């Protein structure tokens, strides 16, 4: 359906009133003067992401969404992306399917694909558990702390399921004045909006980055920095694109030096820049680019799909049951976007974990994520104590912590400078000669490239000590 427009520009304000009050009295299907159909709410409200042309004002965007039978939730003028709700199933058709999309229109949810859910934590929070943190030794974080634990001037955004700010290892790190909930697509700074409810994922990620170095519990990579809890993952593990746009815009507006993104954007593991998927791809791309332009370095998990992200191909069933053909226009969001640091995971042996995605030119660096088959995952904080979890979700915050140390050591460094320092300081890892993880006589994945840069490890294993060494 073509874009809904009024026949006379001077009638805009009258049309808004008509849409709000007069339309419900019209019979369903009876056209208005301009030939469009009246609003006809079907009942349940759905949330939509809407693209606008660059330079569209908030007033113009709100008017257009209202005339399409929607209510404005938020409008991000810097990137010309809006969020609206509507109970009218024709909302997206009125604006055009290449401009409006609702994740709620398809079944989504992927919590287990990033990292296993753990519902409770255990362990004495006064006991020193640092001896169990093999991951910190691997990236030399323990040695780095003798030089620097990071600066309180550095703010790190944890875009996730919320951080438990009452945990003894995190209570000093979380900055409530810079935290917000983004599940609706509009930032809500109230504590209830950014605190975790049923998911421990964000608290686990936060501990890897900045758990206190107090001789109790665990110690994070950069225990001296501050954290902002930015809730973009709901209790079902769903990561809606409007939440991510909100989170990235909040990070940009609140002076975060680095933002951790241990998730992929629903409703597809790989989002293609075509058709209705273009709306999700473009909105998240615009938000990520804006955050980068405002000095936020985004770090993202490569996902746990064991997939070659550089050469997506074949057909895959989407969450709605429809088959989709993957090609070079399909990327995991946000890890596959330009300017975002994509992180693969290695196990305790320093070899790419079997679950970790990879891809030449996509993976920038690698970090410890653990390997389930060896029983060695990453120990970190969860509400009520500690838990071990494996995944690229755990690898990414190790990198985020190293970036936070770099930002502390090099105040005022640009995103590009921090990226260069991170990759130059990484330890190269050559492709394994044999990647037959189960001994079946078949390679489980093929590594391409050479030691300084390859598809499994990118520029190599991040090094916290190098980050604080002049």
TrEMBL record:
Coiled coil: none annotated. The keyword Membrane does not apply. Keywords: Hydrolase, Protease, Serine protease, Signal. Residues 152-443 form the Peptidase S8/S53 domain. PROSITE patterns: SUBTILASE, SUBTILASE_ASP, SUBTILASE_HIS, SUBTILASE_SER. Residues 180-199 are annotated as: Disordered. It holds the Pfam family Peptidase_S8. Residues 1-27 form the signal peptide. Gene3D superfamilies: Peptidase S8/S53 domain. Belongs to the peptidase S8 family. PANTHER family: CEREVISIN-RELATED (PTHR43806:SF11), PEPTIDASE S8 (PTHR43806). This is Subtilase family protein. It comes from Actinokineospora diospyrosa.
């Amino acid at each position: 359906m073509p874009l809904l427009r009024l026949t006379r520009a001077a009638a805009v304000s009258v049309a808004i009133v008509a849409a709000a009050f007069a339309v419900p009295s019209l019979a369903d299907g009876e056209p208005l003067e301009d030939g469009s159909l009246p609003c006809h709410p079907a009942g349940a409200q759905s949330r939509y992401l809407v693209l606008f042309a660059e330079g569209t004002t908030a007033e113009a965007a709100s008017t257009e969404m209202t005339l399409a039978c929607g209510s404005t939730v938020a409008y991000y003028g810097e990137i010309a992306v809006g969020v609206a709700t509507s109970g009218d199933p024709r909302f997206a058709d009125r604006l055009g399917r290449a401009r409006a999309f609702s994740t709620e229109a398809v079944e989504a949810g992927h919590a287990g694909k990033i990292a296993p859910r753990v519902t409770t934590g255990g362990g004495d929070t006064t006991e020193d558990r640092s001896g169990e943190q093999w991951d910190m030794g691997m990236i030399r974080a323990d040695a780095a702390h003798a030089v620097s634990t990071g600066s309180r001037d550095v703010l790190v955004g944890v875009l996730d399921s919320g951080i438990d700010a009452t945990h003894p290892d995190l209570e000093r790190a979380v900055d409530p004045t810079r935290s917000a909930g983004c599940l609706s697509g509009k930032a809500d700074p109230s504590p209830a909006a950014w605190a975790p409810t049923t998911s421990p994922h964000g608290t686990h990620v936060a501990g890897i980055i900045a758990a206190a170095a107090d001789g109790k519990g665990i110690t994070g990579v950069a225990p001296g920095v501050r954290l902002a809890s930015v809730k973009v993952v709901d209790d079902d593990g769903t990561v809606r694109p409007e939440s991510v746009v909100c989170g990235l815009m909040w990070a940009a507006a609140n002076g975060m030096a680095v933002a951790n993104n241990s998730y992929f954007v629903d409703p597809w593991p790989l989002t293609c820049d075509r058709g209705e998927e273009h709306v999700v791809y473009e909105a998240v791309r615009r938000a990520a680019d804006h955050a980068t332009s405002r000095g936020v370095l985004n770090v993202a998990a490569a996902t746990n799909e064991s997939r070659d992200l550089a050469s997506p191909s074949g057909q895959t069933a989407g969450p709605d049951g429809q088959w989709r053909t993957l090609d070079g226009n399909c990327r995991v969001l946000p890890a596959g976007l330009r300017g975002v640091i994509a992180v693969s995971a290695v196990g305790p042996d320093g070899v790419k974990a079997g679950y970790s995605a990879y891809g030449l030119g996509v993976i920038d660096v690698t970090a410890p994520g653990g390997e389930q088959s060896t029983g060695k995952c990453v120990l970190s904080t969860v509400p009520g104590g500690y838990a071990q979890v494996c995944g690229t979700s755990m690898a990414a915050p190790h990198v985020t912590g190293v970036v936070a140390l770099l930002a502390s050591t090099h105040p005022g460094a640009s995103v590009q400078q921090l990226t260069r320092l991170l990759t130059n300081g990484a330890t190269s890892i050559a492709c394994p000669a044999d990647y037959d993880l189960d001994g079946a006589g078949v390679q489980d994945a093929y590594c391409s490239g050479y030691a300084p840069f390859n598809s499994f490890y990118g520029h190599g294993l991040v090094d916290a000590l190098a980050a604080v060494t002049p």
